[in-house]
User: Which sequence fits this backbone?
């Protein structure tokens, strides 16, 4: 473009000179015109330099976007009201308007060390935990090829579709992931994972394997330590369809010594497996997510059971009404060594809600929850048959 | 009458602007002459990173408040910027992959694509430059 401009200017000026030539023209006028040409040429050259400088600046900026320390964050502010007081390991619902149930904020720093190496750390603080900041992610990542990467450090257990983004209210449709399904007391582990991503035709595949260890204490005083957990994940995407398979195997040791009436059990070991399958469709308007999980154990201290949830939402402009059904159930323990600690469990939960897209990175959700067919729901102390919960949350990312 | 024709002219101009195509462009040395809609969709969703031949592709994204971003993603895979952001937030905050780098102006996308044959980017058809290759038209 710039050389064309130069030629154009020269051409026009030459024409001018010629046309002036035909009329009597003084020598000094010609010199002036020639000087003007020189000036214009210089200006064009300067323009070229400017363009080059602009490209350099752009490339730098892009490099910076890829290289520099990248800070991102998310936050949820919520208010809930329940008709009874009840709580789980990391949430509390009260008859009084409660601003802490889902209120939380997180900050993440990604640092690209080199083309292949990067480091990520994420801290999350919840109002429920009196704003104590927990490091939820802290890992080093090595990108071996376009398709293969490895991570090591503190990671999140990749059990369900949203298990790794439990705190990011902006990422999922609900005010909170279905509580009976997404048990969040044990969410992190220390270990490593490997990822392999590839595609053929319109199908994309994401395979991962992980291994690590973790421990946690439940509100009823039971300390669970998973000395070894390993598992795999497979995510298949075809256009708007997604299909997910996951499994985990763990060696679990549970300490009952601080639990009233069960302290005689002391420490007990068990082996457990979990099999998870998920199906999703995320179209222009329709949102669907169905997940099923089945747990198997030696029935020593870990129970067998199944749980599931199904969510359907439909986007209407900036609004998305959604409905969710979830259940958790565990049968009576016939094989159990200590049947007295295994009472059958049942919990069902219906949610109805609507999400409003306030801006490209802020949404507001209103949700109604109903809990029923309850049986021995020890994970939710205080929860009563027919409990209703109303929630509103504002979620943002930056 | 004069006023009237100006209005007609203006409305013609605006409608032609509104109907401007979104073009997916690449370097002249980009290994392919065209690219499938679904592969572009997967590249912009961080699910695919290379061409079938194995050549790496780096997508250039546009800032979220730019109309062309909404336009492009609507035409590409029927996603609103909000849906896209919620999709990416799940990936970003699980340490999966960083989102594509954002470039402000059409002219800058053109310049960057000219610089590096791995880049693909989208621009308004009215800012097309003959120095780059059009891989896909999104009417």
Assistant:
């Amino acid at each position: 473009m710039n050389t064309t401009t130069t030629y154009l200017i020269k051409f026009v000026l030459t024409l001018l000179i010629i046309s002036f030539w035909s009329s009597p023209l003084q020598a000094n006028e010609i010199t002036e015109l020639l000087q003007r040409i020189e000036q214009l040429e210089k200006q064009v050259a300067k323009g070229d330099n400017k363009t080059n400088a602009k490209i350099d600046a752009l490339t730098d900026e892009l490099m910076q976007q890829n290289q520099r320390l990248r800070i991102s964050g998310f936050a949820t502010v919520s208010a809930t009201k329940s008709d009874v007081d009840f709580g789980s390991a990391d949430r509390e619902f009260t008859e009084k308007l409660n601003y802490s149930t889902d209120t939380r904020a997180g900050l993440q720093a990604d640092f690209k060390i080199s083309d292949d190496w990067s480091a990520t750390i994420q801290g999350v603080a919840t109002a429920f935990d009196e704003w104590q900041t927990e490091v939820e992610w802290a890992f080093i990542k090595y990108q071996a090829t376009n398709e293969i990467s490895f991570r090591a450090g503190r990671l999140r257990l990749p059990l369900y579709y949203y298990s790794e983004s439990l705190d990011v209210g902006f990422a999922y449709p609900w005010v909170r992931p279905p509580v009976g399904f997404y048990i969040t007391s044990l969410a992190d582990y220390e270990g490593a994972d490997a990822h392999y991503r590839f595609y053929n035709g319109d199908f994309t595949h994401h395979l991962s394997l992980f291994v690590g260890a973790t421990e946690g204490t439940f509100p009823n005083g039971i300390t669970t330590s998973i000395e070894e957990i390993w598992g795999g994940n497979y995510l298949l995407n075809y256009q708007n369809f997604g299909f997910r398979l996951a499994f985990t195997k763990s060696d679990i040791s549970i300490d009952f010594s601080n639990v009233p009436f069960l302290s005689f059990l002391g420490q007990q070991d068990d082996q457990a497996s979990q099999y998870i399958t998920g199906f999703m469709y995320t179209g222009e308007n329709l949102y669907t997510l169905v997940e099923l999980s089945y747990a198997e154990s030696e029935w020593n201290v870990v129970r067998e059971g199944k749980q599931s949830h199904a969510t359907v939402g439909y986007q209407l402009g900036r609004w998305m009404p959604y409905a969710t059904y979830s259940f958790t159930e565990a049968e009576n323990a016939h094989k159990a060594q200590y049947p007295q600690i295994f009472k059958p469990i049942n919990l069902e939960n219906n949610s109805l809600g609507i999400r409003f897209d306030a801006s490209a990175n802020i949404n507001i959700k209103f949700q109604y929850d109903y809990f029923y067919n309850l049986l021995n729901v020890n994970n939710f102390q205080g929860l009563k048959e027919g409990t209703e919960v109303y929630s509103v949350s504002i979620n943002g990312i930056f | 009458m004069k006023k009237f024709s100006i209005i007609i002219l203006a409305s013609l101009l605006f409608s032609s602007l509104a109907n401007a195509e979104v073009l997916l462009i690449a370097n002249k040395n980009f290994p392919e002459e065209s690219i499938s809609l679904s592969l572009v969709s997967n590249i912009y969703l961080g699910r695919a990173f290379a061409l079938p031949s194995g050549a790496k592709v780096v997508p250039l994204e546009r800032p979220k408040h730019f109309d062309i971003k909404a336009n492009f993603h609507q035409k590409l895979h029927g996603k609103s910027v909000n849906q896209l952001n919620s999709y990416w937030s799940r990936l970003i905050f699980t340490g999966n992959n960083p989102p594509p780098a954002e470039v402000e102006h059409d002219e800058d996308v053109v310049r960057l694509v000219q610089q590096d044959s791995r880049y693909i980017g989208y621009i308004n058809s009215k800012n097309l430059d003959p120095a780059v290759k059009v891989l896909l038209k999104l009417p």
Observations:
- The two ends of chain A are 39 Å apart (CA to CA).
- Residues 227 and 254 of chain A are 10 Å apart (CA to CA).
- Chain A touches chain B through 51 residues (CB under 8 Å).
- The longest helix of chain A spans residues 27-67.
